[in-house]
Each structure stands twice: as structure tokens, then as C-alpha cells.
Amino acid sequence: MDNIEEICSICHQPVLTEFYFCPNCGNNLRERPKPISILTQIGLYILAIFLPPLGLWPGIKYLAKKGKQAKWVGSITIVLTLISSVIVTWSIFNLFNSYLSQLEGVLY
Ligand SMILES: [Zn+2]
Fold it and tell me: Can you tell me where the transmembrane regions are (predicted)?
């Protein structure tokens, strides 16, 4: 019974912390987390994929929010950011390597 942490302000019944409404009197206990629009999600994922370091901050912000959807969106954004960062780092490394070998070809 560790889930019962709150007391309804109207009827003083114990309520589960994950409830948005009091099951006893229907009192609105807290704001339901707003659903994240598809457009916002797509924007976040595009940001994460094309501008890797910038996706990390909104990702963490969403992960810290309440609600399953926000946590999912945050996790996906962070994962995409990490994958994209690895690809970008790898590409730069490869580019640098090929530049170095070209330089060696010129020097020697
Ligand atoms: Zn109540």
C-alpha cells in the first residue's frame, strides 16, 4: 500500500498518487499531462537526427516530465540523438582519415 500517499482535499479519502481524479468524489486532483502532438514529436526527432547535440536537451526535458507519453518521447529523442552523434562523429573521423591519407600521398 505504498502507492497511497495523497489525501483528497474534498472528501479526505486516501488516493493513489497516479490518479488524476478522486475515485470517491470525482475531485480533480492534478492536471492530466497534455498529450504531445505528432507534429511536436516529428520536430523533436528531426532535431535529434539532424542536429544531434541539440536533441539532448528537449529529450531530457521530456523525460523529466510526468506521463508515459512524455517519457517515451524523451527516451526516443535521446536515443536518436545518441545514434546520430555516433554517426556524425564517425563520419567526421572518416573524412579526417581520408584527408590525412590524401595529404600523405602528396607529401611522400
Ligand atoms: Zn475525494
Answer: 38-60, 72-93
